[in-house]
Specification:
The protein is mainly α and 239 residues long. The chain has ten helices and two strands, in the order βααααααααααβ.
């Protein structure tokens, strides 16, 4: 019998990457790189480019993205008479809070231009690490692509999921809002959370008897396929 298994290696590598960057920074490594990048962008920020970057940076506003996804999910849930469109949105919200807030609190890292003697260090007072802009972008644009799957072609879904994080990778550092290592860690953590959310077969998640009896437990995400079925898989043979 042939079975197809989706590799967890990318997920594990992303998790290891976050842990590795965090450990290196805690030990004092890469701080010189952060300072050098901050100082360089501070001296290469003409007004037109600054305005362009500030505009692009709005793509990472987590509060607005959460509300947009929530509204779309509620409309879809009402029209399809099922709670399933709400499930990935609620899970994404909880997952981002649980993943981001403890790490920000524990590292306690200031922003690049905080008025402190050594803002590049952990424990100096702040919530800069990792970049919430990047985590929010990867998670919420992924959820948006999931909800809008019936109306978007595969290339458009890829654009929606790739372009905003790519823009924010540049703008957050260029504007001095985040250290470059904040952004790297945000990318790694965001990729991890996005992959975890897209592994879930949302239309097959068991729901309680009251919802089934009321007719609110039917499929609600047409066009969405879990990660294990829409990416190339490693094949193993079992008997």
């Amino acid at each position: 019998m042939t079975q197809f298994r989706r590799s967890w290696w990318p997920d594990l590598l992303n998790a290891a990457g976050v842990a590795g960057v965090t450990a290196i920074l805690a030990a004092g490594g890469l701080l010189g790189l952060d300072l050098a990048v901050r100082d360089w962008v501070d001296t290469h920020r003409p007004t037109p480019l600054k305005l362009l970057a500030e505009t692009g940076n709005y793509l990472g506003q987590g509060g607005y993205l959460t509300m947009l996804c929530a509204v779309i999910a509620l409309v879809l849930a009402w029209r399809r008479h099922t709670v399933r469109p709400v499930l990935p949105v609620a899970t994404a919200f909880v997952l981002t809070v649980v993943a981001l807030q403890p790490l920000k609190t524990l590292t306690d890292r200031p922003a690049p231009h905080a008025p402190l003697p050594h803002p590049e260090r952990f424990g100096a007072g702040g919530v800069s690490y990792p970049s919430g802009h990047l985590v929010n972008a990867l998670v919420w644009y992924g959820i948006l692509a999931l909800l809008l799957a019936p109306w978007l072609t595969v290339p458009l879904r890829r654009v929606l999921r790739v372009v905003p994080p790519a823009v924010l990778t540049v703008t957050t550092v260029y504007l001095g809002y985040h250290w470059v290592t904040d952004t790297v860690a945000g990318l790694l953590l965001g990729f991890l959370l996005d992959r975890l959310l897209h592994r879930v077969p949302w239309d097959r998640v068991p729901l309680g008897r009251p919802l089934r009896a009321a007719g609110w437990a039917g499929p609600g995400l047409p066009g969405y396929a879990p990660l294990a079925t829409h990416e190339p898989a490693r094949m193993t043979r079992t008997t």
